Every structure is written in structure tokens, then in C-alpha cells.
Amino acid sequence: MMKKILLAIGVLVALVLIGAGTAMGMATHKINKTYDYVALPNITRDSSPEGIARGEQVFRAVCGECHAGGGNTKPVGGRMFDFPAELGTFYSANITSDMEKGVGGWTDQEIARMVINGIDKNHHFRPMPPFPNMGDKDIAAVIGFMRSGHPDFAPEKAQPPRSELTPPGRMAFAFAMGINDKGRTEPVPVPVKAADSVEYGRYLASSVYDCTFCHSPGLESSAVKMQHPETLLSGGFEFDLVPLGGEGKLLSPNITMSETAGIGKWTLDEFKHAMVTGVTPGGFILRPPMPKYRYADDVELTALYTFLRSVKANDKAVPPPTGGRPKAEPSADPEKMFSSLGCATCHAPGKAFEAKLQGAKGKAPEEVAKWIRNPESFKPGTQMPTYESLIDENNALALAKFVLGKTGGTVSEGTAP
User: Where do the Cytochrome c domain residues begin and end (predicted)?
Assistant: First the structure.
């Protein structure tokens, strides 16, 4: 009997290994194949003033953080941290107008296909989350902005390394997330833009800003996650904090209207404030990779809130990251503020944006204090949180002097913190 059991186990293990090998072979084939059969969509840039303005709004909120990142605005590509490290090493592409390294030699339709399918000019798959349900008008607007002559898209020769997928990464992109090889044959309309429209809010959350992908568990696409109301927006998507200079893993928070585990106690104004400034009603700082939606307008933010209120509340609590979440605690001690306000999360030695702190070197403390309270007034679209509601001018000035001391910047006698 024992020999029969061992034989059965051996056969089962062999079948599993054969199946795994077959699946890996299929995944590798799907990742590396040429997708020359994916048709180009009939989308042409919208170069109207309204189209360019809308295109910038979408680009800054959706594309810029991946293709520029790190507080930059030129989309020259770089290292991405939106997926667990176990899936591979990911780099976004240079999408400036450079004819060789960027997308200057691409047609509008080829850019549109890249957005929709993740298929490049040479018919190859690139491991980026596609936006198959983004409306034609919004895609046309984004391309219009990219081709508007804006200085951010001036040719750059930078060429990031190609993304490298691990075996689990190949399996995830080939099967779990799926490669979208369905060419768009019919135009996708953009719902009527209205603050009280659940439909428009759903469109923004699932097809433009992709809230549903990052704030729902699993690696499936937003479209698939939308089909599971029991887990939709309940949090749990895993981010690796180590490449960002952090420790351990970060699980995206629950943003359903649960009053115990989600954002059910947030008012509309508090939601808008958090989305734009990066500061929650409880004084917690929204840390990367969560973007600040500084270019989203009032109607969009209200529609998003309207949609969130329509989603089934989920009371499942998501564990905080290692070390907890930064919470603003204004203090007379600027070193404590540097930590509690979350500055250390990005700018402390060894952190992702340590070098950015050097930008304050040589500036007057009063100017740095104004930057700390309202960074977006100096650099529109910046991903640095707005601290105006958390610290007054005196505390900001003390923090500014502390920051200048860390940069080696000159602080006049008697003003050191």
C-alpha cells in the first residue's frame, strides 16, 4: 500500500511540474511574441486648447508619475516601484519627442495603441498596465498635450533599461493581469462629466486614475476587479517600500465607505483635501506611491466621491506598513517635525528623494518655509504634500532652518534651530 501511495504522489508531483513547465513556456511565449495583428485604433490627437488642457490634466495625474517620477516633470522614464519586487524590475519608457529614444517617430495611433494595449511601435508587449477602457476623447487629449510643443516633451536621449520579468512576473502578466491583444474597433465614449454621476466617477476610478487597480487586492486588471464587489477598493495591493528607501511592504489602504476600516467618516471636503494635498483628515501623510491629484478639478473629485459612496462598504482592516504611517504632529522641535510630517520618509539619508533636499541649499529660510507650506505654488503638480493646514508660519520657518542645516546651506547667525 505504501509503495502505491508513494507512486501516486510521485506521479502527481511529475504532473504538477509538467504543468508548471508548460504554463511557464506559454507565459514566456506570450510575453515575447510579436503582436502585429493588434490593429491601430482610429484616434488622432486633440490639439484644441480645451483638448490640450484636458490632456495635461490626465497626463499629470496618470502618466507623469511613472514616466517622470521623483518630483520631475520631463517624462524620460525611470525605475518604477508599483509592483512587488518578486515580479521583476520595472522601468518606464522615455516618451519625450526624441525620434530615436522617445516617441517622436510614433504616429498618434501607435501611441494610442500603447495606451490601450501595451503594444509598442514594433508590435512588442511592454509590461505596463494598459488603459483599455479610457475614452477616445481622453486619449486624444493626452496625445494632443504630448504633441503640443510643451517643453517637458523636448527631445531627450535618456534610455532606461528594459524591464526584466521574473518567472512569477511572466506568469502574472501573461495570465493574471492578461495581455490585452484585442484591437479597439469601436470608439469608447467618455461619460458625461457631472459631479453627481456614479457613472462618471466609476469611469475615472477604473479607466483613468486606476484607483480600482491599486486599492483592490490581487494582480488582475481593473476591469476584472470591478466584477468583484465583495473586494472592490478594500485595499491589500502590495507595494515594495525597500526600493523607495523604506522598510518592508506597504499594502494599499481600504477606501470603501466603511466607517471602521475605510474612509466612511470622511466628508466630501476632507476627501478632496486628501486627494489634492496628500494629508488625510486624521493628519496622516499619504506617502508614495500614492499620487497627489493636483490637476483634478472639483467636478472630477466630487464624482469620484459619489462613486465611492456607491461601492459596497468593506470592514476588513488593512495592516499599516512597517513603522506605521507618518502622522503630522506639529512641534517646537523641528527635528521631530521632520519625522512626524513624513519628510524623513522621502528625504532622510538613504531614502528615495534624499538628493531633492539639496534643492533648498542657499535659499533664504523664509522662502523654504513658504515652499514647505505650499510646494505646489512653486512647482505645480509636485508630489510633495501641502502642509499649510498642519503647521503655521513660525513652525514652518523653524523646520526650514533645520532643513537648511541638513543641506549644508547657510543659516545666518542667531537663526539656527
Answer: 50-150, 329-407
CA–CA distance, 250 with 59 (Å, rounded to integer): 25
Q: Which structural domains are found in the chain, ordered by start?
A: 49-176 (1.10.760.10), 198-310 (no CATH), 334-407 (1.10.760)
- Amino acid identity of 111? I
Sign of CA dihedral 46, 50, 54, 60: positive
pLDDT score recorded for residue 238: 84
* H-helix or E-strand spanning residue 89: strand 88-91
The pLDDT of residue 275 is 95
CA 28 to chain CA mean position, Å: 26
Supply the DSSP string of 141-168, one letter for each residue.
HHHHHHTTT-GGGS-----PPPPEE-HH
Output the pLDDT for position 14. Answer: 41
Determine the pLDDT at residue 411.
43
SS3 of 13-55: HHHHHHHHHHHHHHHHHHHHCECCCCCCCCCCCCCCHHHHHHH
Under the phi-then-psi rule, with left for phi > 0, alpha for psi from -120 to 50, and beta for the rest, what region is 244? alpha
Tell me which DSSP letter residue 209 carries.
S
Residue 22 has a pLDDT of: 81
Please, is 93 exposed, middle or buried when counting C-beta atoms within 10 Å of its C-beta (0-12, 13-18, 19+)? buried
Which grid coordinates belong to 143? 496625445
Asked if 91 contacts 79 with a C-beta cutoff of 8 angstroms, the reply is yes
Weakly modelled stretches of the chain, pLDDT under 50: 1-18, 410-417
Q: How far apart are CA 100 and CA 105, in angstroms?
A: 7
Cβ partners under 8 Å of residue 48, min gap 6: 144
* Sequence letter at residue 335: E
Whether pTM exceeds 0.85 = no
Q: What per-residue confidence (pLDDT) applies to 6? A: 38
